[in-house]
Each structure stands twice: as C-alpha cells, then as structure tokens.
Amino acid sequence: MQVGKIFSRGDNVPTITLIAHTGEIHTLDVEEGTTVMEAAINNAVDGIIGECGGCCSCATCHCYIDSRWLDKLPVRGDLESEMLEFASSQAGPNSRLACQVEVTDALDGLVVTLPETQL
Amino acid sequence: MQKILVIGAGHGAGQLLDSLRRAGCEDSLTLVGEESWLPYQRPPLSKKFLSGEMSQERLAFRPEDFYTRHQIDTRLSCRAVALDRDAARVELCTGELLPYDRLAIATGARVRKLAVPGATLDGVHYLRGIDDARRLREDWIDKQEVCVIGGGFIGLEVAASARALGKNVTVVEAMDRLMARAVSPDLSEFFLATHTARGVRVLLNAGVEELLGTEQRVDAVRLTDGREIAAEVVLVGIGVLPNQELAARAGLACDNGILVNEFTQTSDDRIVALGDCTNHPNALLGRRLRLESVHNAVEQARTAAANLMGQKLAYNQPPWFWSDQFEYKLQMVGLSEGFDQVVMRGEPETGKFSLFCFHGDQLLAVESVNSPGDHMVGRKLLAACRYPTHQQAADRDFVLKNLL
Ligand SMILES: Cc1cc2nc3c(=O)[nH]c(=O)nc-3n(C[C@H](O)[C@H](O)[C@H](O)COP(=O)(O)OP(=O)(O)OC[C@H]3O[C@@H](n4cnc5c(N)ncnc54)[C@H](O)[C@@H]3O)c2cc1C
Ligand code: FES
C-alpha cells in the first residue's frame, strides 16, 4: 500500500516545520491535503498521537500554531474548540487539533509547536 | 534478544509495535496478518472512505517505511493456523513454523453472518476490512436501492453514507430501537428521528425471513411479517465474533474472547492478547467484558507493550467510543447498561446535548451528541469516580470541569 507520500525537498509541495517540546525541529515536505497530524505520524515525529485517526474525537493531536500563521488557517470549529479545552496540555488561543489543519499551498512555511504531553 | 511474534495485523497490532519500538525494545519483531494490508484504521471504512471522501492511503496506521525503519518483519496475506505452546511456535497457512519467545495475539473479530435462505446471493455485503469496503463501493455505484440489515453503529453509519450518495436506504432492525445494545433509549430516539428526517426508512421490530434474488443476485429482502423490501444491495451489520479459535484450540482459556488479566496476560505467561479478541477485567466497572473499539485496542496494546518489556501497567479506564452519522458526532464513555435514570444536558432540538446515565448517584455513562466538551469531562469524571449530582448534570451553567 502506498502511504503518506513524502516528497524530497525541492518538489513543489508545501514545507512545514514542527518544533517538539524538547526543541527538536522537524522540517517536512507535505503533500497538499494532508493534515498536520498525518504529516507528523508519517514522518515519525514524536509529540502527536492521533488516536482517533483524525476524527476530532480524542484531542491527542493538540498543537500550537505560530501566531504569524493563525489568520491564514480556516477558523477553529466549535467542536474542535470544545475538545481543546480538555487537551492534556493547556490550550491557548493559538491551539489547534492538528488533524483539523489541512496543509495547503497557502500554508507553505507553517510553523507549529508541539505540547509536552498528549495524554 | 528475544523473539516477539504478533499474530493479526490490525489496529491493536500496529499500536503494539509502535509502543514497543518507542519504549526502546530491541527484540526481533515479526508481524503476521491474514489481510494483504499493513495495519490500518477501520473506522473510516463505514464513514468517509465509503462515501469516497477519504483515500485508501490515508487509512494506514503507519507509513510503509515505519516497518522497514524499525526492522519489523511483516508477513501479510498469511494466516496463522495453529499454535503449539509446548514447542513455542506458530504454524502459518504456508506450512512455515515461526518460533517465539513471547507471543501477542491480536486477531480482532469477524462479522457475524446472516443465517437465512438467500444470504449468499451476490449483492449481499458485510463490512469489516478494506476489501469489503471496496467491494461495497464498487457494487453500489450503479445501484439505488440499499437495504441495511442491523441498526447498530456500522449499519447506521453505512446508511448515512449511502444517503449522502443519494441512495434510497431502508434499515431493518430486529429490536424495538436503534443501537439497542450500546446506548440509552433517548439516544436511540434521537438517531431514529435524525435518520428518518434525512430520508432513511427505518423499520424496527423487523425480522428477516429470507433474501430473494434473480439469477444469483439479490433483489429483495422478505421480512417475517411478509413485507418485501426492494434491495439491489444489502449490507449486513449484525455484530461480530471474537477470533479466539487459534488460542482456544491451543488450550488458552477463552470465554466470549480470549481471557486476559489487566496486564493483557493470557492463561499462558508467555502469551499476551489484546483488542477485539479479548475478554478482560475492568476494575472501574467491576466486571469482565469484551469491547470492540479503537480505544480498547490501543490501550491494551500499550499495556501489552509494557508487559512484554517487563513492566506492569494495568489497563483500567472507562471505555469510550465514537460514531459519525450525518452531521452528528456521537461520543460515548462508560457503559450505560444497568442505568435507572437518564439526565439530559442541553436540548436535542439544537442537535447538541448529552445524556448522563446514572444508577442511583453513580454515574455510569455519558453519551454526547456534538458536545465533545461533555464527553471529555465525562471521561475524566468516570476515571476519577467523581460523580455530579443529577441536578449538576442537567444544569448547563454548572461547570462540570470544576468537579475535577
Ligand atoms: C467499519 C468499522 C467501523 C468502525 N468504527 C469505529 C469507530 O468509529 N470508533 C471505534 O472506536 N471503533 C470503530 N470500529 C472498531 C475498531 O476498528 C476495532 O475495535 C479495532 O480495529 C480493533 O482492533 P484489533 O487490532 O483488535 O482488531 P482488527 O483491527 O480487527 O485486526 C485484527 C487482524 O487480525 C487478522 N487475523 C485474524 N485472525 C488471524 C490469523 N489466524 N492469522 C493472521 N491474521 C489474523 C485479521 O484479518 C485482522 O486484520 C469500527 C470497525 C469497523 C469494522
Ligand atoms: S487525531 Fe483525534 S482529535 Fe485529532
């Protein structure tokens, strides 16, 4: 099965940067339409669990969006906001569920920080 | 270095392998799976994958290179046929014998088959794996009349997906309400109204007598009361049975699932079992049970990984589950069975509410529709055995989180 296509840098796909709680930096080339949660899982980035597979049902994919990108993202839905209130690490105004953030060309360069824990 | 052998390549197995390597396990790992796919997520099969909104590659639990990177030997399209505990090895359908030091059984569950005349006609489908979902998707492309037998989660999700594709859908349910085994009557009522409003014809108290067909292909479902329902495609969703035979034949204790303790240990201390195939104790609920949910498979997998690494981590959490039907996200935590009072929080008319199921003062379960906040707080309350009063549960201005 072909899964989580990861392109080598240079291909014309958006690049996103995930910063782990430990400070470790992951720069990923992500096919458009992939969610930030899927990108993290497919590239073995620790710090995102994604237990429900992206159904907005578990809150184990909490992340913080770099403030420069916040207004480029589609707005946070009500259900997502409710889930975030119960994320294991304190949620803030720039918190999102990574499974609800789809990477698009407009998000090329997106920077995301991961919380200390998801459980 | 010991040899760890994992039988069954589903959700639980995927999580087990991930947890083992994450915890620094350097043992040799072999995964044997009957399906031709690496571990994947089943929930979308009745939801976004069926309606065509989600591609197959997005179902994968981990990308293909995860297995190579972590030196996991995968044997797909390969069924384990016998377990010899004295020799500590497993026989595959190819005749090959795989030795193990520790064995993990994660064989999941299989669909219960409909036992009426005509059940083997073409056009009669079940839904458990990717191959089933693909067959159903291909088959119903040019068909209009869909009959779903069984008004449980899978049946209702398929009904919603079929409606989204504009098909005519009839759901035939033997009990007097939908999802009767798993949810409280008020919730059944809400989903009955929802499905009906969306154009699904729901028949309750309806038994299936026979499937009728022409030239080997189904064209109608005959009910015990004589009614005939037009059906170009039939989807049967009447529950699952645990895949326990491999274990049972080898003498492992089984009783509606492979019996394990809170550490996922079977009656043989070299063998753990996890996921849909197990029957396990839950101290919070004070009894044994068999569950069919992602949460259970994932948590038992984490527990089993710890166990295989020589640590004792007891699995003891309130069970939770979700289901998506139309625009409604249903999330449930706890088990409502045995409730004597249900308290409504919010209003069903708004499509956003939760039902708190109590036995006396004790909270048993929280069933939420488009109210993930209530669901999340319910999980924490049940895990901590902190119960709101009936009044607090009903009062939307009372902040339940403050009880924690
Ligand atoms: C359509 C559908 C929708 C669902 N929706 C939800 C949902 O919304 N929320 C939720 O929480 N849960 C849902 N579930 C349930 C969830 O998917 C299961 O609980 C979960 O997959 C269980 O994981 P498991 O590893 O125990 O078993 P499985 O994922 O079933 O994996 C077991 C694997 O073992 C293989 N196997 C069996 N016997 C052998 C053998 N002898 N040798 C080799 N291989 C063998 C099987 O072929 C299978 O691939 C859904 C299930 C289905 C089918
Ligand atoms: S993966 Fe579960 S909420 Fe995002």
Classify the secondary structure makeup of chain A into a structural class: alpha+beta
The major β-sheet of chain A equals:
5 strands, mixed
The largest sheet of chain B is: 5 strands, parallel
Name of the CATH class of the largest domain in chain B: Alpha Beta
Name the average pLDDT of chain B: 97
CATH H-tier superfamily of the largest domain in chain B: FAD/NAD(P)-binding domain
Shape type of chain B: globular
Radius of gyration of chain B: 22 Å
Total number of β-strand segments of chain B? 26
Number of DSSP helices of chain A?
2
- Strand neighbour order, sheet with most strands of chain B: 3-2-1-7-19
Quaternary structure classification: heterodimer
| CATH homologous superfamily classification of chain A | Beta-grasp domain
Give the overall silhouette of chain A: globular
Mean pLDDT of chain A: 88
Compose a concise summary of this entry.
Chain A has helices at about 35-40, 80-85; strands at about 15-20, 25-30, 60-65, 95, 110-115.
Structure explained in plain terms:
The complex is a heterodimer of chains A (119) and B (404). With 119 residues, chain A is of the alpha+beta class. Chain A has one domain: Ubiquitin-like (UB roll), CATH 3.10.20.30. Chain A contains two helices and five strands; from the N terminus they run ββαβαββ. Chain A has a five-stranded mixed beta sheet. In chain A, a hairpin with a 5-residue loop joins β1 (15-19) and β2. Chain B is an alpha/beta fold and 404 residues long. Chain B has three domains: 3-48 and 59-110 and 240-308, FAD/NAD(P)-binding domain (3-Layer(bba) Sandwich); 113-236, FAD/NAD(P)-binding domain; 327-403, Enolase-like, domain 1 (2-Layer Sandwich), CATH 3.30.390. Helices cover 23% and strands 30% of the residues of chain B. Chain B has helices at 11-22, 64-69, 130-140, 153-164, 185-197, 245-249, 294-308, 372-384, 390-394, and strands at residues 3-7, 28-32, 72-75, 80-84, 89-92, 97-99, 102-105, 109-111, 124-125, 145-149, 168-172, 201-203, 208-214, 217-223, 228-230, 233-236, 240-242, 258-259, 271-273, 278-282, 287-289, 320-325, 328-334, 341-347, 352-359, 362-369. In chain B, α1 (11-22) runs parallel beside α7 (294-308). Chain B is globular. Chain B starts with a strand and ends in a 10-residue tail after the last helix. The model of chain B has no long low-confidence stretch (mean pLDDT 97). The interface between A and B is medium-sized, with 23 and 32 residues. FE2/S2 (inorganic) cluster binds at residues 37, 50-52, 54-61, 97, 99 of chain A.
